Amino acid sequence: MRYERQPLIQRVIAGATELAGSAVSVVLGAYAAEIASTLPPGSASIIINRDWQEGIASSIRAAVTRLPGACNGALLLLADQPLVGSHSLNRLAAVWRRQPRSIIARATAR
Questions:
Q1: 86-98 and 8-20 helices, crossing angle to 10°
Q2: Which of 20, 78, 86, 101 might form a disulfide with 15, Cβ 3.0–4.6 angstroms?
Q3: What torsion, rounded to 10 degrees, do the Cα atoms 6, 94, 91, 81 define?
Q4: 3-state secondary structure (DSSP) of residue 31
Q5: pTM of the entire predicted model
Q6: CA 93, CA 87: separation in Å to the nearest integer?
């Protein structure tokens, strides 16, 4: 899927990289090899979710199990939300930094 002539996943990776630098991972399930081949080399580490048929919860599990032991938080993004850009991600991160023991969520993009 594309938004403004850019693959959605590349758009999401770019926004996440602006916030987190090289600490970006992408969970792929169905069509993982095909999608991975479209990603710029080194743009994100790739996690393969072999249980993708179970739904989004299995992708979240796959991502969380790969977090480093010293990780204080994680930002979960969906690749089909093209209006969630770096501004929105920075705002979420700022709120989380003030309340690091809380789950912070944004239901809509602005």
A1: 40
A2: 86
A3: 40
A4: strand
A5: 0.84
A6: 10
Coil/strand/helix, residue 47: strand
Tokens of 54: 């179970």
Q: Where are the alpha helices (DSSP H) in 21-50?
A: 32-36
Contact predicate 89/19, CB 8 Å: yes
Q: What is the pLDDT along the chain (110 residues), one digit of tens a residue?
A: 777 787 888 888 988 898 888 889 999 999 999 999 989 899 999 999 999 999 999 999 999 999 988 888 888 988 888 777 788 888 889 999 999 888 888 765 55
Q: Of 67, 63, 64, 73, whose CA–CA distance to 100 is shortest?
A: 73
Q: Cα torsion at 85, 88, 91, 93 (round to 10°)? A: -60
Contacts of 30-39 with C-beta under 8 Å, sequence gap 24+, read 35/9, 38/7, 38/9, 38/10, 39/9, 39/10, 39/13
